[in-house]
Design brief:
Layout (H helix, E strand, L loop, with lengths): L1 H15 L16 E8 L3 H14 L3 E8 L1 H14 L5 E4 L9 H6 L24 E2 L2 E2 L9 E8 H6 L8 H13 L3 E4 L10 H10 L7 H6 L10 H13 L12 H9 L3 E7 L2 H8 L5 E4 L12 E4 L3 E4 L6 H12 L1 H7 L21 H5 L3 E2 L9 H16 L4 H15 L2
Parallel strand pairs: 1-2, 1-3, 7-8, 10-12
Antiparallel strand pairs: 3-11, 4-5, 6-8, 6-9, 6-10
Length: 420
Amino acid sequence: MRHKSVLTAIGAIAAVGITLTGCSSNAPAASSGTITVARLSGSDDKWKSIADKFHELNPGLTIEYTIIPTDSYNQQMGTRLSAGTATDVLNVFPGSGNATAVRSLAKNGYLADLSGEGWAATQPESTTSATSYEDKRYMFTDVATANTLGGVYNAKAVQDAGLKIPTTYSEVLTFCADAQKAGKVAYALGAQTQWVTQLVTYALAATDVYSQEPDFNQKQLNKEATFQDSKWLESMTKYKEMFDKGCFNKDALGTSVDNQTAMVADGRALGAIQISTMANSMTKANPALNVQLAPLPATDTAADTRLAFGLGVGWGINAKAKNADGAKKFLAFLASKEGSAMNADKFGVAPNGAIEANEINKLEIPFVEDEKTVPFPDVDWPSPQVQNLHLTGIQEMLGGSKTPKDVLTFMQEAFTGALK
């Protein structure tokens, strides 16, 4: 199963430190000039430091960033690639689940083949499928930047409300009710920002669907299973139940991801169901914030719970890059021990390249060590349209114009149509 092999790879990193190194002898030949890089917004200080260090090591090369908001990245990058105006290097998502996922872009000829790069041979085998198309690797992603998905809690706000982080689904509903009594929102939800809408489903489905059927995605690809006639319906129904019972802010459909972040940072909300990297934005808004990460339970048996876990957004090189040599050298730096250490997410499961519990991730580490993790499901979806219908469908479901089964049926139609 993919999630086990990913964690085996991370376990190897834990034993020897970050080993995803690109030896200098394998780096591209020296080049000069500007390397243009499109990246998602956020972590500006980190990426400035990375650019400065890269320039220090390569004085003839300068990094020039184009920063694009996450919620408009797919549209903007798609337009730039089709118009031939894209940057040399760009953020690329694993798998095939959205318009800037590696398989989608490589299929359309937008990415350069990176199979022959020195760092490619050092990558964990478990990353190959999610970063490749037709047996060629078109993407680099660092396991040390992998995301978890679940509750991102304001630990002090939870404690001040006299509550504890839930470990069963019934406790989730009680947590929501008790938060309301304390004058708080249990989970801030920025459902105005489309990409945020999918996260609650993914967190619940990790347990509802994939703890019982880890091969569910393959069954779908074999046309042996559908969203609407599976445990996906349970996850979607629980999402709606949480909304109806006040687990989220009442104006969730009019709340942006930035406002969601602010609600957790200032304690109006006890937490949010988000990817772990969003804790960076929360602590930037409130440097004194104590973050606690935990899986979102979906059943009343705590042993059933699985942690949603996915490779982070990575990097590809434009097939029409103006500075291809420089672009390859930048990816080689990101794959090096020094580059990986600078890029590692302190809110991840391996913030220093090693899996070890700390005050932030201590409720997640047992799931990683026991291999109770599940990849984000959209990695294997055959068309970005499936995800698009999920995003818009959730908004319509929360708004009352579609049922959970309606949303899943439309998603399945797009999924099946892409297999023809």
